[in-house]
Amino acid sequence: MEDAVRAAYRHLTQDFRPGTAVPLPELRAEVERAAGRPLTRAEVDETLDLMITRPDVRLAGEANQKMLTDADREAAVEIGGETKHYLAIFD
Length: 91
Hints:
Elements: H1 2-12, E1 22-23, H2 24-35, H3 41-51, E2 57-60, H4 70-75, E3 77-79, E4 82-84, E5 86-89
Helix pairs in contact: 1-2
């Protein structure tokens, strides 16, 4: 599953530099395509929770909560008591 998340991230950021923040709504949609099958929210959330232990992975929250859309709020993941809205991979 981590491979699918990384593949989705690379696809979404192919025209950008490593470390570009990807909104989780976009990432979740792309991960299903990369995995080649429907995924449960729990599968993706568990994978993101595992990935933050990797030195090249960061999950970040949106400081300006007024900027968040309903889709952003719905796709967010709570890790360590904090709500995260973006994924960045520095590889």
